[in-house]
Amino acid sequence: MDLENQKRVLEYYEQYGKDDLVILLGAAEGEAAGLAAETVTLGDPTYAGPLAGVSLGLEVYHICEPEVKAEVDEAVYDEQISMMEMVLDVDDIINEMNMIREQL
Amino acid sequence: MSGYAVLKGASYTLAHTPDMVLHNGTTQTTERIVNPESDYLKELPQHLRSYEDALSYLPNQVYIGNNTPDDLAAMEFPYHDKKVEGKRDGRFGEIMPQNEFIGLLQICDVFDVVKLEKGFAQETAKKLAAHPLIGAERAAVLDKNEDDEAEIKRLVDEESAEPLYDGGRLVGAVKRAHDIDVNLSAHVMLENLVTKSSSVLSLMYLVKTTGIDPGEIEYVIDCCEEACGDMNQRGGGNFAKAAAEIAGLTGASGSDVRGFCAGPAHALVDAASLVQAGTFKAVAVTAGGCTAKLGMNGKDHVKKGLPALEDCIAGFSVLIVANDKESPQIRTDIIGRHTVGTGSSPQAVIESLVTDPLDKAGLKITDIDKYSPEMQNADITKPAGAGNVPEANYKMIAALGVKRGEIERKQLIEFVQGHGLTGWAPTQGHIPSGVPYLGFARDDIMSGKINRAMIIGKGSLFLGRMTNLFDGISFVIDGNSGAAEEAGAGVSEQRIRELIGEAMEEFAKNLMAE
Asked: Hey, are the CB atoms on B347 and A28 less than 8 Å from each other?
């Protein structure tokens, strides 16, 4: 995850606390989604950013996961996400996300 | 004859710079600050490729025009473990070895900040003198070097000069151009001289490949992602004119256009418009590469046991001229724009760049034979978790086609294969952005292999922290309608001859009958 984004996540964490913060990802690949999810839960696996060695344990989802889709207005989802949903390997992304969440 | 400006030709060059990967790529320079004893920094040198390996790497041979994107599509992925015939010279340019490129840096340095070790300079001067496009006159600049290695080392140790290495050996240094101004620091001077030099090399090849008299190029637009200036005008600019000077374009003025990775597409629309308006008859769009992005994904490549594939500084130049009745025309009436109000969802981006302009022109997604969006080489991006970038773009265009009912869902993959290209460009930001296909597109349109191509440039403006907006611009190129009209005229002339012949025959028959 981009170092600047890690910094922002850490700032939000300090501002809102763990229980009032959900991280929503839009990564285009399962591996990239998994890495980002790992960064905001277990810590930055690349040991490069502000979240290196910091386990925030935040709730994290990808926008294409069914739990999130169910929460979004159908028309908005169609306009903003449906095209990408067709393009992405959604199953792979869900698998990666579940794998990270299971480690929590 | 239409008034569209035309694509006269393009050039593409690489300089293989493995030592710059180690010393100038930001992934490595950052690591050296954050984690100087890291395993990555220790392992990276073993992952550098030799010049010969860089030559025999198919994506590089496609970039300089010796092979085609179709050849790459036919190669089983990944590419880094396979070799093809490695030629230095290509139809569009060349792959220059590091030592000659360092020599070229000095040729492009007019403020005497590049210092080369005497022996290295002598050897390199001979090579550059024998280079068909550089020659003895330019190479003579290297004769001025008197410093030995100890003096070069002193410049680096005591005067903050940036070292220049070749094969691990200290062969030169770039001095700072000001004692205090960070915009003229040795680091920035090296970065800017590298982009200038690679642009100069490409411009020289553009003159060669198009056969244009260099004096006829009236304007040069540089569209790289660097900034030159000083503390009072940090992005003051004009890499364009600076490069034109060294490339011998004595009749040219110029300016710089910026837009992150979308820069080249913006610059080409500008160039086509300037030519179509009659302001200039010939405009060159050019960009050099960047040291910062060398080895950008090196950590992933090393971790996965791959060579450090981001080891080349790239450059390209494109010549846009007034309608010559044969070259592909740039359709300034089919332009896609990502506007301030477009929004940043991928769907909104693709609509603004692809379907909005096509709708206005009464065309369907399938009417464009080849799309050239971000043409990054997947060999580099996939191991780094960024996927196959061109393929992702094609899938997005196809998915939009499905949503619009222009393509059946089951034809999605077929569309990607038919209307897409396999990415071959180095990951140097603006370099892969739409433009790598222009050289081949000219061939493909003129040979009738395709009718239309769309070039799509996209840029991540938020990286500059001035706006959160995304950006992009696209344009269509198609066959020269002047050429079609001429061909049409040829047919009817033939028909007239036939009619006259038939009439004469009839007349003769009538005479005989009488």
From this structure: no
Rounded distance between C-alpha atoms, residue B368 and residue B357, angstroms = 12
> May I ask the CATH class of domain B329-488?
alpha beta
One digit per residue, the tens of pLDDT, for chain B of length 514 reads 459 999 999 999 999 999 999 999 999 999 999 999 999 999 999 999 999 999 999 999 999 999 999 999 999 999 999 999 999 999 999 999 999 999 999 999 999 999 999 999 999 999 999 999 999 999 999 999 999 999 999 999 999 999 999 999 999 999 999 999 999 999 999 999 999 999 999 999 999 999 999 999 999 999 999 999 999 999 999 999 999 999 999 999 999 999 999 999 999 999 999 999 999 999 999 999 999 999 999 999 999 999 999 999 999 999 999 999 999 999 999 999 999 999 988 899 999 999 999 999 999 999 999 999 999 999 999 999 888 999 999 999 999 999 999 999 999 999 999 999 999 999 999 999 999 999 999 999 999 999 999 999 999 999 999 999 999 999 999 999 887 666 555 555 566 666 777 777 777 777 766 5
SS3 B157: helix
Q: How far apart are CA B433 and CA B365, in angstroms?
A: 20
Chain B contact present for A76, CB below 8 A: no
DSSP secondary structure, B470-501, as one string: -EEEEEEEE--HHHHHHHHHHHHHHHHHHHHH
* CB spacing of A83 vs B396 below 8 angstroms: yes
ipTM of the complex: 0.76
Question: Quick one: which of B209, B243, B219 has its CA closest to B322?
Answer: B219
Instruction: Verify whether the Cβ–Cβ distance A29 to B34 is below 8 Å.
Output: no
- For B465, the closest chain A residue by CA position comes to A4
Could you give the residue ranges of the DSSP H alpha helices within B404-480? Answer: 412-419, 438-446
Q: Where are the domains of chain A?
A: 3-102
